[in-house]
Known about the structure:
Elements: H1 24-28, E1 41-48, H2 53-60, E2 66-70, E3 73-78, H3 80-88, E4 93-95, E5 100-101, H4 116-129, E6 134-141, E7 147-153, E8 165-170, H5 178-193, H6 198-206, E9 208-212, H7 217-224, H8 281-291, E10 294-295, E11 298-299, E12 301-309, E13 313-316, H9 331-348, E14 351-354, H10 365-373, E15 376-382, H11 399-404, H12 407-416, H13 427-430
Parallel strand pairs: 8-9, 8-12, 12-15, 13-14
Antiparallel strand pairs: 1-3, 1-4, 1-5, 2-3, 6-7, 7-9, 10-11, 13-15
Helix pairs in contact: 4-5, 9-12
GO molecular function: metallocarboxypeptidase activity; zinc ion binding
Catalytic activity: Releases a C-terminal residue, which may be hydrophobic or positively charged
Amino acid sequence: MRMTRHRRRAAAAAVLTLALAWSSAQATAAPPEPEAASATAIVTYEVAGVATAAERTALARTGTAIDEVRDGSVLISADAAHAARLTGLGWELTPLTAPRERGAPRAAAPADYRTHAEVLAAVAQAERQYPDLVAAEVIGRSHQGRDIVAVKVSANAAADEDEPEVLLTHNQHAREHLTVEMALYTLEELTSGYGTDPEITSLLNEREVWIVPSVNPDGKVYDQESGTFRMWRKNRQPNAGSSAIGTDLNRNWDYRWGCCGGSSGSPGSDTYRGPSPESGTETGVVADFVRGRVVGGEQQITAHIDFHTYGELVLWPYGYTYADTAAGLTRDDADAFEALGTALADTNGYRPQQSSDLYITDGSVNDWMWADQGIFSFTFEMYPRSSSGGGFYPPGNVIDRETSRNRAAVLTLLDYADCPYRITGNEAEYC
């Protein structure tokens, strides 16, 4: 059984031929970055006495981005000024490594991951190689003018058919390069598997898949393409009245934005939510794309994964409240999220949980996708489980293993996209 739909449209007019537009020169064209001030020493700290969601939320409310949750503690990355402020507030910080200059090589080299230009070239190649399966379009541009691309994969990609749609987004946070590799793995797996793999063939005959390889291309380029990693998280949009750069795109979505202490109002914070919802250029681009998939008053996207690193987690709404149910999220909804999230985690060995079990976040993509658009939305925190595996920069030799690890999870979500409530036996009521 599938969700009721009332439309059948002709070929989408917005599909673009990108082979020329996506040359390396175009892909990297942007205003030059301002000259950096003196390098800022970034240290990884363990913060003791942080064992509960409430304690983690209290730490996050200082504007601190939590990198890793441990039993009784968390890991953060901070410069000396932020570390001193936390110490002054009473937090117990222990450095785990010697100070590392912002931009110092870590567990991987930038060359281990494909550049933004190489990503766009891979998409263009897939479109040329599989013209019936792949149709890519520029859905908007970043603050610095780089293309943000959505890649459609379906058995008849040129037509907007009456089929459930699944959206896969990647790289909201600049330093999470493994997620971009995840996007390209999925693109390759779906295209090469069509006609040879019975499961993929059946799913693409009945589903439309949208892949956005990089939501934050400016941040990706800045973090990777100087030749050394910079530990950059946000986008590269200036903030009026401040020398601090960037908005945390995953605190900038227009649902419960800034409501609950789950983001920062300080432009210098890694979790800065921006001056208003969707003020981040890239947030607005993707939100507009999603709203544009409403046809005849019905949202065509039924399911979504936003890929992040790290922690090996499957997360679902809500993030803004500890409650299992809240406005717009009924017990049947919550049960379906938990059952489907657990089924996804069973395929990849990640830990399934409601987002706020970690700590409160507000203005997040999952909460917006569900509450505003009715889309079953999950976050995958990919490899590694802990900093010992490389943290945000795992070595290149794990990329193939850790992207393929999510193959079954993606296919499972595609399977349930016709009616996610099917997993709890409630399809007759909701689909």
